[in-house]
Amino acid sequence: MNKKVFLIHGFEGSPNGGWRPYLMSELEKQDIYACSLPMPSPQAPKLSEWLEEIERHITKNKEDDIYLVGHSLGGTAILRYLEKYDSPNIKGVIIASAPCHQNENEKIREFLLDDFDWMKIKNKSPKVIVIHGDNDPFVPVSDAKETAEKLGGKLILIPNGKHLNGSAGFDKLPEALSAILEIIK
To answer: 6: helix, coil or strand?
Structure first.
């Protein structure tokens, strides 16, 4: 059984933006397959399309141990995925800078419309690590704390990390690499 890491970018993101290329390259050095999935219409995301895209990749790799890493809306999409689908091969999840409550961005409203079924999500992901900038201008730290607490996960706060994206200067995120290696080992 192979270990595979799927990275899911956020709203207006791209597979090769921010720290995703760094993380894929570092995992490759450890002989761990990593792939950043291109989410459909990132400028106007639709929850059903994002979930189907994640499901398509997980179904194609059902013989492998899967680890999901999501940034921003990608992390929210992972939570919704775990809530909706049964994928016993998901062995761990890293959520970075992801909202779990409605905010002023109308374009992602559908992802945050309903409250999360935290127990259902927790039962489907044995290991969870949440990473968040301590001064994120888009997603309050309270969202990260709630996600980590409700899922029994570990919370890593990055001092002056902002939204942990490329425009905040994050083309590397060693904390994400450490986190994924910690849950894989």
So the answer is: strand
Q: What is the pLDDT of residues 91-107, one digit of tens each?
A: 999 999 999 999 999 99
- Nearest-CA neighbor of 176 among 78, 76, 68? 68
User: What distance in Å separates the CA atoms of residue 1 and residue 134, rounded to the nearest whole number?
Assistant: 37
- Say if strands 154-158 and 65-71 run parallel, antiparallel, or are unpaired: unpaired
- DSSP lists the bridge partners of residue 36 as 7
Q: Please, what are the domains in the chain?
A: 3-184 (3.40.50.1820)
CA distance 161 to 54: 27
Please provide the average confidence, as pLDDT, over all residues in the chain: 97
Rounded Cα gap, residues 109 and 165, in angstroms = 21
Query: How would you classify residue 152: left for phi > 0, otherwise alpha for psi between -120 and 50, otherwise beta?
Result: left
Q: Give Cα 71 to chain centroid, integer Å.
A: 5
Is the pTM higher than 0.90? The answer reads yes
Residue 126: is its pLDDT beyond 90?
Answer: no
30-33 CB contacts, 8 Å cutoff, 24+ apart: 30/181, 32/3, 32/4, 32/5, 32/180, 32/184, 33/2, 33/3, 33/4, 33/5
